[in-house]
Fold this protein.
Amino acid sequence: MITAEYPQVTLLRMPRNVGYGGAWSAGLTYALGQGCDWVWTFDGDSVPQPHALAALLDGVGMAGSDENVGIIVGLPVNAETDRCYAPQLWREGFQKVPTEVLSQPVWYADLAIASGSMVRRDVVDKVGLPRTDLFLDFTDFEYCLRVRSEGYKIAVVTAGVMRAGVPAKLAADRR
């Protein structure tokens, strides 16, 4: 269905279910092999809002010129509840981001949901690919921890909203 409706899209077919970590790694490998400097990643139940890419690209302009920014993320919002799952801070444990920070156009986090994130080529060159053995749970947080441990920043672009947890029928209807 994807290749028929969107012939310009390259569909990577996995030989088996490799989970989120395996699919994320395969997608990054493919895109970087095509010469991309930044890769925008998604999972199957996420739908970017119409303005999300422009907002993230603005974020690349605002924060991405800093060579220490390795990942740029938007705000994931649950499609059914409208609850925002803001990226987190790590201060000897998970810390919620203060409300006044959430309203800033660009701020920095330590842990973020990977779907809807833009990953910089330099990060993958230095940190490596996401772990495939985790399959689903904690794949993105583990990667964020490795990225942060190498001195990279994770920039959050507040206007880059990503609807997460979108039921398949709803996602198809939004096309």
About this structure: Confidence is low (pLDDT under 50) at residues 168-175. The longest strand covers residues 153-164. Strands lie at 38-40, 47-48, 69-78, 89-90, 94-95, 106-109, 118-120, 153-164. The helical segments are 2-5, 19-33, 52-64, 99-102, 121-127, 139-149, 168-173.
